[in-house]
Amino acid sequence: METILFGGTFDPPHAGHLALLAAALRRHPKARAVVSPAWRSPLKGLPAASAADRLAMTTAALRSLPAASRLRTTLDPWESQRDTLTYSWEALRRLKTALPGAELLFLAGADSWETLPRWKRVPELARLCRFLVGRRPGAPAPKAVAGLPPLELLPGTFPDLSSTGLRARLLCGAEPRELLPAVRRLIARRGLYGGTLRAKLARALSPERCGHTLAVAEMARGLALRHGLDAERAALAGLLHDCGRAIPVPALAAFAKARRLDVPARAATAARAPLLFHAYASEELARTEYGVSDPAVLSAVRKHTLGDVAMSPLDRLLYTADACSADRTYPGVADIRRAARRGLDAGFLEALRVKHACVLREGGWLHPTASAVWNAALEDA
After folding, report:
1. Domain shared by 233 and 313, yes or no
2. Closest CA to 55 of 152, 192, 173, 148
3. Helix (H) and strand (E) counts in the chain
4. Are 372 and 286 part of one and the same domain?
5. Distance between alpha carbon 163 and the CA centroid of its chain, in Å?
6. Quick check: 309 pLDDT over 80?
7. Could you tell me the pTM of the whole model?
8. Which among 88, 202, 217, 273 has the fewest CB atoms less than 10 Å away?
9. Alpha helices in 205-277 (DSSP H)
């Protein structure tokens, strides 16, 4: 008896997963399938949703399979409930022990096949199973490689979807059609993938500020995809970049002092432009009130207004996204958007130029850090 093992984090499960599973069952009409959500992947970071939530979403997704396929498919919670890493060789060995006469097929996308040399105990994988692999449109067909398990390529191509990309869109408040309705409803009900965070921001910020926040998150996501950065991180930074605006401007300086925030030119900033404290307050609240521990995201939030002489690509991206989000209408914003489409550095430099010109035109105070950032950017240009 043939048994197909389909593992993954399913964070979240989407139409591409179901299409791959349905194709495997069509290709092997007598096979049964075991779908096994992982507690976490050995080659990825921590999942965004809990194991219990991902198990529930996968259960909901599998109900959408055609009846004939659904009857041949079993959801196995073993991996997701172990609270520890499970390697594919372990899952396959367990299945082989439970089904000693079964021929095991491991279902995977082409991206997983490409990472196979990095998996644990590849020779044992080759002994235990052969791989069923589906490819994405426009990608070359995976090829068998000596020393790896035998490869069977599924006919056709499969949706060019990634759970990472879907999570970034969900963070921005989208409802991707690539997610099955039952999965979308569960995500909304449980506040997954930024739902709870966005609701908290909506309670803390004005409707106008919330609209700006979502616009910056979407611009950051788009620029990240365009320039090869982590879209999920960019969207999260965009969502939280102005959370400090929940603090009234007259109270920002006192908040920064009470929390011992390291704000450059603190006294002059408090006297001349106290609104500038909000970026530092936003970093503090993102960490303490919204549970963000990613130093890259926190850095981008802190630097999104004044910048810094040392800025990572994500720092520059968020600075630019905030300057040219879709809700912005000030003179020069179209130039920033055009430059940002050309390149991340070009967009950042144009954002600096336009913002500094605006401050000088209106007779405002140019913070010493902003001047230093402009000079550093010119030297690097």
Report:
1. yes
2. 192
3. 19, 6
4. yes
5. 8
6. yes
7. 0.92
8. 202
9. 207-227, 231-240, 249-258, 266-272
